[in-house]
Design goal:
about 40% helix, two-stranded antiparallel sheet, twelve-stranded mixed sheet
């Protein structure tokens, strides 16, 4: 209750400070505060207005401060002030940056921020443009960071296009930097590289680093065109990593050959989280996947969303024969708490019965 009171006090004080400084209307609308998370979206101010806004944030007392800062589509003045805000707000542990265009000048803010980092444990860079070579330089800085535990780099250098997949993404230099990061950093346990146009060739550059890393427990390669070749290389690498517990390969163009290799990994590893959603695993893949799931009793979260929807000649076809065997395969896993079948299609009565039996059997909660 005291925490909630402090959060309410912090938000009310910030809004009042903004009003006292003559900042209202669009400025206040751009600020959302929830669960000790401050979200600033589409904030564009004059130089004088920005100084007043910054003063208001820096005026918060330690027990009123936010733990997460999310900034999206804001101007350069606020971006460059982030190191000062982080230094003042010692409660801040998570920083998320969305839809920002970094140039050769303001990218220095990120370099300086992480050179001095002693508090941020989680960092998200989503849908941002950064200059060539910047990610490699950031990776070198993160290699020496002893505080950062969660790193998410998503939709890097994304351009609006018809395809949902990012055709720009990471360059070879970026991947080289990340490989060095994985070899040297000893604190990052969760890495997400979602939708960065990482195919088998770029993935191959990370393989040996993944084998050497013994702190990474969660890896997210969702929405990258890994294909069967990439999935095979990835699974063979992760088989040599004893710390590994969680894998997200949603929508990675994995088919039957990839599923076969993944199933061997499922049997070897004590997975607690697995997402293979939106992959066309085929009817042939269902049997071997069901067998692997029957052998696993450690999964707490499993995402099978959309895997019974196949694409044939550009047309989406729903196949109701896929989900039933997979749902039946996990019913004896007493640790499973969350099962996702979003975007799936049920037609056969036996599939519906299998789902009902699973949902009504503890310990499924979601």
């Amino acid at each position: 209750m005291e925490q909630k009171d402090a959060e309410s006090t912090g938000y009310q004080k910030l809004i009042q400070l903004l009003r006292d400084k003559g900042l209202a209307g669009d400025t206040i609308d751009a600020v959302v505060w929830s669960d000790f998370s401050l979200h600033i979206d589409r904030l564009f101010l004059s130089s004088q207005e920005f100084l007043l806004f910054k003063e208001a944030i820096l005026s918060l007392e330690p027990n009123e401060e936010f733990k997460t800062l999310i900034v999206s589509q804001i101007d350069e003045k606020f971006i460059n002030s982030l190191p000062a805000i982080c230094e003042k707000n010692l409660a801040l542990t998570r920083l998320e940056i969305y839809h920002i265009h970094f140039d050769d000048e303001n990218i220095d803010m990120l370099f300086n921020l992480f050179r001095k980092n002693s508090q941020l444990t989680e960092f998200v860079l989503h849908s941002c443009d950064i200059p060539d070579g910047s990610l490699k330089k950031l990776s070198a800085i993160w290699s020496q960071d002893t505080t950062l535990k969660t790193l998410e780099i998503k939709l890097l250098n994304y351009k609006e296009e018809k395809s949902f997949f990012n055709s720009q993404g990471m360059k070879l230099d970026d991947i080289e930097g990340l490989a060095e990061l994985l070899r040297k950093n000893k604190t990052i346990s969760s890495l997400a590289l979602t939708n960065n146009n990482i195919g088998p060739d770029k993935l191959a550059m990370l393989v040996s680093a993944l084998e050497e890393n013994n702190t990474l427990t969660h890896l997210n390669f969702a929405l990258n065109p890994l294909g069967n070749e990439g999935i095979s290389v990835l699974c063979q690498s992760l088989a040599k990593n004893d710390a590994f517990k969680s894998l997200d390969v949603e929508n990675t163009k994995m088919g039957y050959e990839g599923v076969k290799v993944l199933c061997n990994l499922i049997k070897q590893k004590s997975f607690i989280h697995l997402s293979i959603a939106n992959n066309d695993i085929s009817l042939e893949g269902v049997e071997i996947l069901a067998d692997a799931l029957r052998h696993n009793h450690t999964l707490t979260t499993l995402d099978l969303g959309g895997i019974n929807i196949r694409r044939v000649d550009g047309v989406f076809i729903r196949d109701s024969r896929i989900l039933g065997p997979l749902i039946s395969a996990v019913k004896n896993n007493k640790n499973l708490k969350t099962l996702s079948i979003r975007g799936s299609f049920f037609e056969a009565e036996e599939d519906v019965n299998a789902l009902c039996e699973l949902v009504l059997t503890p310990p499924i909660q979601q």
